[in-house]
């Protein structure tokens, strides 16, 4: 039974990420449509064995982000650098008594930390990917992709997907979006992720976002795996 779930879930995830890939480039040319937002796909996984020294630098006001278009442009530049393997990365993994396990990757270039990616699983029925995009030591965009799954009968599984997007200027969220959709292993009646509606929210969860980011930053210089992420 476990093997069946893993296989169907993997197939669903592959299809969903393929949809993200197709919509990313369409999105940047379509203004503020549903699929126009950054992070319609993940930047591809990079090698994690580099040991390049990186340092944080002070913000340069001449390159600061001032509006949504600046955020989208910076996101596009950063994902292009990731796809071109022009950013170094270091990482560590953790396993907290098999209740929560995950991996944290820090992507950096000559200007310091640029992306922090946290992928994790909790109690086998929940998985998440949290991505924190950074410029001049400050967050400018955060993307959460959270999936909870369950059996719906006769071996069929259902993935309930929630995506959250946070657009940030000067440390404050200027726009927050939430998208929800469901993927069934039978593929019957599935909504395409790019067709799901992005709904604007009140950004009330942003404090929790910054708390999680701050916790992960504490482990940036970690050189070995650990048991649990301690607050």
Explain what the structure shows.
By secondary structure, this protein is α+β, with helices and mostly antiparallel strands. Helices cover 23% and strands 37% of the residues. The chain contains three helices and eight strands.
Radius of gyration: 18 Å
Backbone shape: globular
Q: What is the overall pLDDT average? A: 77
Helical residues, percent? 10-25%
Number of strand elements? 8
How large a portion of the residues is in β-strands, by DSSP E?
Answer: 35-45%
Please mark out the parts with pLDDT under 50 across 5 or more consecutive residues, or reply none: 1-62
Secondary structural class: alpha+beta
Write a short abstract of this structure:
With 231 residues, the chain is an alpha+beta fold.
Write the layout of secondary structure elements.
Blueprint: H1 2-27, H2 68-83, E1 88-96, E2 100-109, E3 112-122, E4 126-135, E5 138-153, E6 156-169, E7 172-184, E8 198-200, H3 206-217
Antiparallel strand pairs: 1-2, 2-3, 3-4, 4-5, 5-6, 6-7, 7-8
Write out key terms for the chains shown.
231 residues, alpha+beta, 8-stranded antiparallel sheet, 3 helices, 23% helix, globular
């Amino acid at each position: 039974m476990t093997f069946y779930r893993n296989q169907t879930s993997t197939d669903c995830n592959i299809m969903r990420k393929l949809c993200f890939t197709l919509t990313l480039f369409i999105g940047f040319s379509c203004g503020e449509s549903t699929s126009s937002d950054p992070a319609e796909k993940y930047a591809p996984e990079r090698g994690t064995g580099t040991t390049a020294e990186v340092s944080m630098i002070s913000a340069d006001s001449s390159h600061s982000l001032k509006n949504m278009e600046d955020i989208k442009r910076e996101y596009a530049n950063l994902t292009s650098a990731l796809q071109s393997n022009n950013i170094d990365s270091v990482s560590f993994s953790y396993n907290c008594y098999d209740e929560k396990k995950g991996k944290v990757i820090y992507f950096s270039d000559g200007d310091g930390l640029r992306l922090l990616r946290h992928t994790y699983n909790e109690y086998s029925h929940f998985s998440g990917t949290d991505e924190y995009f950074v410029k001049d030591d400050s967050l400018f965009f955060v993307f959460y992709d959270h999936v909870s799954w369950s059996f719906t009968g006769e071996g069929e599984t259902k993935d309930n997907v929630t995506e959250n997007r946070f657009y940030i200027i000067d440390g404050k969220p200027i726009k927050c979006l939430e998208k929800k959709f469901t993927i069934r292993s039978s593929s019957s009646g599935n909504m395409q992720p790019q067709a799901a509606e992005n709904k604007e929210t009140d950004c009330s969860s942003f404090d929790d976002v910054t708390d999680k980011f701050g916790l992960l930053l504490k482990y940036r210089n970690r050189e070995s795996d650990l048991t649990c992420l301690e607050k």
